[in-house]
Write a structure and sequence with these properties.
The chain is mainly alpha-helical. Helices cover 47% and strands 0% of the residues.
């Protein structure tokens, strides 16, 4: 029951003024965006391997490279965003969780398995 959705699919814009600016007009990347891109780029060799350990990994990786994930982490877009939308930090954390899941799947560590919750005694 889990599926990928980009931020623009979850929070569709109401008017054309809310759309993301062209790349040449966009502000420089912030630390959240740089870290997210770097972590995702580090998985590319595993994804492009002849036979990745998870058959769905290449498509999932491709979807994570979608530009609106990174645009949603922009501090500039947060200033004009809908108050019901996630903050750039929340977008970053959700993205990092998805990337961490993909890392585990590519490493062959129990693809798509929900970890067992252990509470302290």
């Amino acid at each position: 029951g889990v599926y990928f959705a980009t931020p623009s699919e979850v929070f569709p814009t109401r008017t054309g003024t809310d759309s993301v600016a062209p790349a040449e007009a966009s502000p420089p990347e912030n630390e959240l965006q740089r870290d997210a891109r770097s972590r995702l780029a580090s998985l590319e060799p595993l994804v492009r391997a002849e036979r990745p350990s998870d058959a769905d990994a290449p498509e999932d990786w491709r979807r994570l490279t979608g530009s609106d994930h990174f645009a949603a982490m922009s501090l500039a877009s947060a200033r004009r965003a809908d108050p019901s939308a996630f903050s750039p930090y929340e977008e970053y954390m959700a993205f990092r969780h998805a990337v961490s899941d993909l890392e585990r799947r590519l490493a062959g560590a129990g693809s798509r398995r929900v970890p067992e919750l252990r509470l302290p005694a």
